[in-house]
Write a structure and sequence with these properties.
Largest sheet: none
Strand content: under 5%
Distance between the termini: 25 Å
Shape: flat
Radius of gyration: 17 Å
Oligomer: single chain
Structural class: mainly alpha
Length: 104
């Protein structure tokens, strides 16, 4: 087993925890992680990089447009990627219900 295998293969005891975390992610983000993981498993670094960059990369002009619109509309938060909405919602619910932050 090489270093790459150890980095990307969850320990057996943590496999359920990893699956639980994946299930809690937004569907788009979960598919992105699975595509990147499949590419890494096949040792296809180029495909893994493409999967990751296609999901997180936005053209600077698109981000700038969102920022200018937020300033114009007097919005404090500029959330560029809706795939994180479920994570933000879960975090805020934890705070409102006085729950400790989730680990990991």
């Amino acid at each position: 087993m090489g270093l790459g295998d150890r980095l990307f293969e969850p320990p057996a005891a943590d496999a359920d925890k990893v699956e639980e975390r994946l299930a809690s992610l937004a569907p788009q983000l979960r598919r992105l992680i699975q595509r990147a993981g499949d590419a890494l498993t096949a040792n296809d670094m180029q495909r893994a990089q493409q999967a990751l960059s296609s999901a997180v990369a936005m053209a600077p002009a698109a981000v700038a447009g969102q920022v200018f619109a937020a300033i114009r509309d007097e919005r404090f938060y500029v959330l560029t990627h809706p795939i994180f909405d479920s994570w933000i919602r879960a975090r805020m619910e934890d705070i409102i219900h006085h729950r400790n932050p989730r680990s990991g």
